From TrEMBL:
InterPro entries: HemC, Porphobilin_deaminase_cofac_BS, Porphobilin_deaminase_N, Porphobilinogen_deaminase_C, Porphobilinogen_deaminase_C_sf. Residues 12-220 form the Porphobilinogen deaminase N-terminal domain. The gene is hemC. GO terms for molecular function: hydroxymethylbilane synthase activity. This is Porphobilinogen deaminase. Pathway: Porphyrin-containing compound metabolism; protoporphyrin-IX biosynthesis; coproporphyrinogen-III from 5-aminolevulinate: step 2/4. It comes from Pararhodobacter oceanensis.
Amino acid sequence: MTFALPTPAEPLKIGTRGSPLALAQAYETRARLMAAFELPEACFDVVPVVTTGDKIQDRPLKELGGKGLFTREIEEMMLDGTLDIAVHSMKDMPVEQPEGLVLDCYLPREDVRDAFVSTSAGSLADLAQGQVVGTSSLRRRAQLLFRRPDLQVVEFRGNVQTRLRKLSEGVADCTFLAMAGLNRLGMPEVAKSAIAPEEMLPAVAQGAIGIERRETDQRAEAMLSEIHDVPTGQRLAAERAFLAALDGSCETPIAGLALLEGDEIWLRGEILRPDGSECFADEGRASISDAAALGDEIARRLLSRAPKDFFDWRE
Ligand SMILES: NCc1[nH]cc(CCC(=O)O)c1CC(=O)O
């Protein structure tokens, strides 16, 4: 090894958001690094950071605008050396990295499906006409209204715990959460059912954790390469190329899921109007080494099929 491992005096500083889910993901990363390098916990410092997206809780995310609402502060602290690595939900990550930072380490992907969470209904099909769904996700709203235009959708922001509280207060009849988040929080029983990807295609990169580092930090590069999961990286290469070609951020009604099948990769992508009135979907297969080209190709096919005004709402 040409780099010095962290010590209790010079710990590896791990940046994360402060929600229980974000902390669980940071602890999972720490545990994997401890195991890979036989290091004690004292060699790591988990540093929770409050981001702009966390500070503003009273407005829908889409009104706040700008990419990287949940990452800007963390990335600034990485660039000035306050943090060494940062643990992110890849679903929330913009497709472009700030200058000087690299995001090429992924942990093994969790369940990609959305969870159906309700105090009354057992699954989507059980919802009666006109019942109220709480979600702040444009994608989930659009996918739901596409299938069930009779349902009402109300804005539902906040972390997993906040949303469950709102549900128990009767603000909505049901909500959706990522199964991955519930599993990582050790509360899978909160899901009344998991929704099959055929019924609700997940967000690009849902269920994947990514770990960011400084481009020039050889210690972080070497350590992260030990815990990187190659299949997850291949799937995200296809999904994120798809997203990049559509110029989407985490809050646009875009869905995408890649699966590995032998030495091939399969990708399905979807774009929707925010009101659910229209949905375009396409899928294809390629050799794993062409994962990113496949993502690009599926996006281009959708762009050529969608009417000219399809993306106008973004302006
Ligand atoms: N946008 C918030 C967000 N970002 C990642 C997850 C869940 C974990 C994951 O998908 O990896 C969640 C919460 C949710 O959608 O329920």
